[in-house]
Each structure stands twice: as C-alpha cells, then as structure tokens.
C-alpha cells in the first residue's frame, strides 16, 4: 500500500468571510514553491470554506513546516487553516 | 484519484465538531525473553526491552496525528501478563516491578502501560497470587500502570477462589488510594474471556500467541455516530442500523490507516483495529445519547437493551468491512464515569446497576467505571464480579468488571477522577449478603457447549 508517500496535501481554510482570503493563502503557497492542483470554494452557513489540493514536492520540508507558514495569517484573519495528507480522505471514504 | 469536496468537508466536520479521534495506538511487547529469577535483573531486562522497542512510539504517533489531521489521544503499551513472566517473586517484588513499569512509561512519555496482569481462570500459582496481593500497593504507588485479572472463561469455568481474593483486593486498593478517590480501582479490570489483543485500558495485555512486538489501534467516535443519526429522526430501525454501520465503517478506516502507518514506521507488524465506540466526557461524545437518539427517553428505560444490541451489532458490521483484522473488544463501551449521558441517567434514577448488568449481555464490555459506596462488603464486590463472569461464560463473550468502591463516600454522592476517567455518581448496591456463595469457593464448572438454547 502506498500510504502518505505521495506529495498531495489537502489544505482547508475555514473562517468568517472577508476580502483577500484566497489572495493571501495562495500567495503563501506560491512563496513556498507549492503548486495548486485543485481548488474549490463556497460559503457554508456564513462561513468561508475553501479546499485546495496541492502538490508539495518542491517545498523544502514536511506538512508541519508548511503548516507553520500559515500561522500568522490564521491569527491575522481569524481563519482555521489545516493541512492533511490526501490519504486520510481517500482511505476513509473509499474502498 | 480526485478528491470530493463533500468528503473532505465531512472528515473535517467529524474531527472538528463531532470528536472523531483515534483513541489509542498501543504497542504490544512480549516480555518472555526477559524472565530472570533475580528480581533486580528482571526489572532491568523489562525496562531495557520496553524502552528500546517503544522508543519511537510517541514521536511516530505524534507525527501521524499531524500528517492526517486526526487526533490520537493516547499512546500506550501492553506487555505479557507480568505474572506469566515472573519466576518466584514476592508481593513486595511485584510492587517494585510495577514501579519499574511506571518509570518506563514516564521515560517514554506514554499514557498507560497495561499487563500488570495474571490469568487465573482455572487455577492460581503462587506467583499469580502474590501479584494479586501486591495490587493495592502497586496500583496506589504508580500512576500509569494498569492491571487485569482473568478469573473466568467459557472453557475453564469461573474461579470463585480467585474472585473472592479479587473482591478483597479491590476493597484494599480502594483504601490504599482513598486520598485519590480510590483511583487505584479504576486501573484494575477483572475479566471473563479476556481478549489478548485489546488496546484499551485498563484491560490491555499482550497475550499468548502474539508476536514479539505488535501495533494495535483503538478507534472511537460516538459523537460522529450521534451526529449521523440526528439527520434521520424518522427513519425506521433497519435504516438506523444502516446509518450506524456506514459511520462505523468510516471511523474504522481512519484507524486502519493509522495502524498501517504506525506499524510501518515502528517496524512492527500491524495487529488489529479494535472498532469500538468509547465515550469521553466531551459534549455529545456519549454512547448513552446515541441510545436516546435511537428512541429511549433516558438511557436505562425499557428499550435500552434493544437499542444497545442494535448499535453494537451495527458497529461490528460496519467496522469489520473497514479493516483487515478486527479484534480486541470491538463493539460499544458503556462506562458510567466516562459518559455524560450515562452519568445523567444514573442521576435521574433511570439507570441502575441491574440495568447496566442486563445491558452488558448485548455489548462488548461489562460493568465499567462504576462507583459504589466505600463500605461495600468485599463479598458483594465478588458477587458482582461472579455475576458478570457468568454472563460472559454462558454467552461465550468477553465481560469485565471495573468497579470502584470509593472510600468514605455514600450512594448519591459524586466522585471526580479527572482526565479520561471522568466523574461518577456513587451507585447503590444490594444491602443483602453474597457471603455464603463466595465463602464456598471452588470453581463453577464450564458450561456445556452443545444444547445451546
């Protein structure tokens, strides 16, 4: 089984809707050499909700290090940004 | 493969709002090769082996938790039942051994170490007796050591001599830890048909037939099941079973992934996923509330046992599809102190000890985390254990008793244990005596396996 060996990570962003969320999140990804593969965004129960699938093969470090890059933005905009390896989603919902 | 937005959001919601967690990653370690007649060398051997084999357990579990974004609550170790490795140790030797195990747990930063155990369902060696005698001091002078005693099996019958001794031991353990609300008793489980591969404390030990080292995982998620059920207030019970089954599947898959990753990284074979609904004191993370959502006004009223049977079976059906090896207790835990719904039901007078006993016939464990008055007679404790063992023995299932006579407290009072152990209302026990049946001693013969009616 090829688990958590790939480079695809799911980035989810949840928080109060406000201007500039997508711009600031994607800027951090670009700065860290992370490529966005897929992006979907919606407003759910007044909450801004964005899910991205990104490729971190060119990022120097692991998901934790990347996660840390988002910390200042989380505090600044009151967002919850989490990074999870794609395997948990594939594994949980699909046979 | 593309990822669906809905599935991602569902997973995030399960973790963020519904308390989905991996309850434990437990490393089982055989201590058979540590046997030594000199108690000091024996302690050195077990300390060395445990701290070597599990050196990376905490770090690996921490890292997996961060990678997949699902919390792993406990990191634990289970070991060969220590009385099975002991050679000729006295009770005071066993107390020292417990302290060594506690020290190993603290060095490794793990939450609990289980297996300070003796299997005496058919008979007791001197060593095993000494271990049981050491329990009051061993459990009150250590923090992370958990003990279990197997007193009955369907094949061997019920060892009533052992049950008499354990009843007295529980009262002594209660007194020995009276300044901590008799917490020592919360770290001791008495078993019938003990599972040898279960990752849940206090009953975990590394059984016969297990490899040198193994990784077992315990999953949980009553909150997730409760939330799923709330979406179907008018569904019939077949549909209710189906919803629980589907949810249990997803929860167990998360456990399967964690187990495979942990086993891989710790260089150990992957044993089992114990697919259980184990409650916590977090809001909504309650088995009792699931039963109430299924349709009983308060847990404990007529209909509760039927609801529990439905739920327990559905959890097993969904979970067993999700993992290659299901094992351990698998089903539902109904501890009183760890489940807000159960606590409320006891306080309302809807849930009694006898109803709980009936409920244990259809779920995976037994009387778990039940607080009773401190002045309960040892023979009454033994009687409760004997009854619960009989249920397990006759029905060919695991049952267990984790009962806490709280020194100095009376029925109706509340006792706080803290952490995952929660708080419990003291329940009433029968005022009439079980002394004669316990005093008789001997062994209740194993039941006939044919003529099952």
Automatic annotation (TrEMBL), chain A:
<dbReference type="InterPro" id="IPR002912">
    <property type="entry name" value="ACT_dom"/>
</dbReference>
<dbReference type="InterPro" id="IPR045865">
    <property type="entry name" value="ACT-like_dom_sf"/>
</dbReference>
<dbReference type="InterPro" id="IPR022986">
    <property type="entry name" value="UPF0237_ACT"/>
</dbReference>
<dbReference type="Pfam" id="PF13740">
    <property type="entry name" value="ACT_6"/>
</dbReference>
<comment type="similarity">
    <text>Belongs to the UPF0237 family.</text>
</comment>
<protein>
    <recommendedName>
        <fullName>UPF0237 protein BHU72_10340</fullName>
    </recommendedName>
</protein>
<dbReference type="InterPro" id="IPR050990">
    <property type="entry name" value="UPF0237/GcvR_regulator"/>
</dbReference>
<feature type="domain" description="ACT">
    <location>
        <begin position="10"/>
        <end position="90"/>
    </location>
</feature>
TrEMBL record, chain B:
<comment type="subunit">
    <text>Homodimer.</text>
</comment>
<dbReference type="Pfam" id="PF05167">
    <property type="entry name" value="DUF711"/>
</dbReference>
<comment type="similarity">
    <text>Belongs to the UPF0210 family.</text>
</comment>
<protein>
    <recommendedName>
        <fullName>UPF0210 protein BHU72_10335</fullName>
    </recommendedName>
</protein>
<dbReference type="InterPro" id="IPR007841">
    <property type="entry name" value="UPF0210"/>
</dbReference>
